[in-house]
Amino acid sequence: MTDKPGMTYVVSVFEKPNWRTVITTKDKAEAEAMAEAIGKGARIEEIRPKPKWR
Fold this sequence. Notes:
Blueprint: E1 8-15, E2 18-25, H1 28-38, E3 42-47
Antiparallel strand pairs: 1-2, 1-3
């Protein structure tokens, strides 16, 4: 297992009364394109994996 987990991007949009997840991807460009297509009210969250300690 030489693959290291990468950053995950979550694009969400506000729909009253709470946030709704639209897309979850590992590609930053795809997340930014989706947020731009949604327009106002969209946000991108970056989720960094925590290292596993033995």
